[in-house]
Amino acid sequence: MTGAGPVRRWARALGLALLLSAGSVPVLAASPDIDDFLQQVQTAARTLDFAGVYVYQQGAVIQSTRLAHVVDGTGERERLEALDGEPRECLRQNDIQRCLYPDRKLVVAQPARSDHFPGLLLGDGRSLGKRYEWKPSSRAYRVAGRRCTVSELLARDRLRYSYRVCTDQKTHLLLKSQTLDPRGHIVDQVAFGSIRLGTDVPTNALDAKWDTHGWKQETESGTPTDLQAKGWRFSPPAGFAPVVQLSRKIGPNHGVDQLVLSDGLAAISIFVETFDPKRDQNVKQGGMRQGALNIYRLRLASYWLTAVGEVPAQTVRDVAHAVQYVPKAAH
Predict the structure, then answer these.
(1) What one-character DSSP code corresponds to residue 203?
(2) Do 203 and 238 fall into the same domain?
(3) Is 80 exceeded by the pLDDT of residue 144?
(4) 235 lies in which domain range?
């Protein structure tokens, strides 16, 4: 079944954890060909100056975002502006970003993430040759008026999705990416509709749209935690390794613990929160999906367990059912 509201909530939480875990995926041996290709794509996303609008389709939801990225003497700077729904923009300076919500007169400071489009990798990606087969091709395509080369990252098992990407022939910048299920069907996709590079990037592309003087200021972060010490036991799918463990507040008197697993391209989060009969009386167990994002919830002892990830539904279900809770008194 689908559920846009809960899906967006857990997707935001997954994103925050990835902000705090950048660069921490363990390194294993991998194919140099896929290494070189992915490093070229990731380096282009981190070092080039570009500005444009990209469109992201996730299931029935389509969202447009204006993006500007510039590297100068101060480091990496970026501006993301949502063009659909509630007005909002995020301004990044290296490892910190400030997100502006004009309807609420709110500024939220948080760790910055660099894995979003047109980036691909979560961490350095050096173990990916063990889990994905890279199939380059000579087939050319055009995206946003620029010529790009199509290639595929094919999953070696059914635990994860495959990807079809189109990278700029001159700069290696990722211009389009499609996520493919095990049958080869597109489950989500993102692509630039327009883009400028280098000196064609407008000088005001990074300017904030709103004056935030007098707005409320908040900081969003998580505190490191040890879920095993709390009695939790996890069995990650093959190729997925723990990246970060966090405790976060998501509401008044409502906390959640989170474990993030990643294989370098895909991520799975496992959320643990105390069951509250009043708050959770209408919450149902089972799965929901939006595009490539799958969620599976179940009740375990006096806790809610939620697995979230851009992986096949069976993977998040298996991850959730493999979790065990051993109360401290039983240790």
Answers:
(1) T
(2) no
(3) yes
(4) 222-330
CATH number assigned to the domain comprising residue 98: 2.50.20.10
Q: Are residues 250 and 302 in the same domain?
A: yes
Q: How many other CB atoms are there within 10 angstroms of residue 271's CB atom?
A: 23
CATH assignment of the domain containing 266: 3.30.200.100
Higher per-residue pLDDT: 93 or 114? 93
Which helix (H) or strand (E) segment is 322 a member of?
A: helix 313-322
Q: What are phi and psi of 74, to 5 degrees?
A: -95, -5
Q: What is the C-alpha separation between 31 and 135, in angstroms, rounded?
A: 12
What is the C-alpha separation between 320 and 223, in angstroms, rounded? Answer: 23
How far apart, in Å, are the Cα atoms of 197 and each of 45, 48, 151, 167, 175? 11, 8, 22, 14, 12
E strand intervals along 184-302: 186-197, 216-219, 223-224, 232-233, 241-251, 254-262, 267-274, 286-290, 293-300
DSSP three-state, residue 198:
helix
| Site of tokens 């700069």 | 171
Q: Which residues contact 90 (CB under 8 A, 6 or more apart)?
A: 78, 79, 80, 97, 98, 99, 100
Predicted confidence (pLDDT) at residue 29 exceeds the cutoff of 80? no
